[in-house]
Amino acid sequence: MTAGVSRPGKSKGAGNERRLARSGEDFDIIIGFLGFWAVVLVVVTVWMEVTGQPALWWALGLLATLLAIYGMVRLRRKLPDRR
Fold first, then answer.
1. pLDDT category, 79, cuts 50, 70, 90?
2. 54 by DSSP, 3-state: which?
3. What sign results for the dihedral spanned by CA atoms 23, 25, 31, 36?
4. pLDDT by residue (tens digit) across 24-75?
């Protein structure tokens, strides 16, 4: 019935740029989220140090958050700028 009918092929680049831009925006949101928690952890760590309470785990959480931000920023640089 449809043996001789050919379907139009998908273009390989259709929507690819939009997906990359959307992905970049997602990275920006994640970086902002991590940045917020990094600020919170800085305040908590400083408070714990000033009051003489153990702050090791808070500082390690801050380190992990900062490393995550660094990694996300490096990955974000590979994506196109927002328009």
1. confident
2. coil
3. negative
4. 788 889 999 999 999 999 999 999 999 999 999 999 999 999 999 999 999 9
Residue 77: per-residue pLDDT: 86
Return the closest-CA partner of residue 72 out of 19, 36, 31, 22: 31
Structure tokens at 81: 């700028």
- From residue 51, alpha-carbon distances to 55, 57, 60 in Å are 10, 15, 18
**64/34 Cα distance (integer angstroms):** 10
Query: In sequence order, what are the residues at sequence separation of 6 or more whose Cβ sits closer than 8 angstroms to the Cβ of residue 12?
Result: none
CB 24 within 8 Å of CB 79: yes
CA distance 24 to 35: 16
Around 75, how many Cα atoms within 13 Å sit in the side-chain half-sphere?
15
pTM summary value: 0.69
